[in-house]
Specification:
Helix content: over 70%
Strand content: under 5%
Shape: elongated
Structural class: mainly alpha
Radius of gyration: 12 Å
Number of helices: 2
Largest sheet: none
Length: 50
């Protein structure tokens, strides 16, 4: 159970970091498209980075 919580925490932190980097550096980090919002894209990308 502990490993699952660590995975979810790491996924959440990755997603949060990507989202805030997209807000701070909009020219360098592009999140989202016509299908995905920035929040959805950061969650999806955070999963793949985890």
């Amino acid at each position: 159970m502990y490993e699952h919580l660590l995975f979810l925490l790491y996924w959440f932190l990755n997603s949060l970091a990507l989202y805030f980097l997209g807000l701070l550096f909009p020219g360098s980090v592009v999140l989202g498209s016509w299908r995905l919002t920035a929040v959805e894209a950061s969650i999806y990308a955070g999963f793949w980075l985890t």
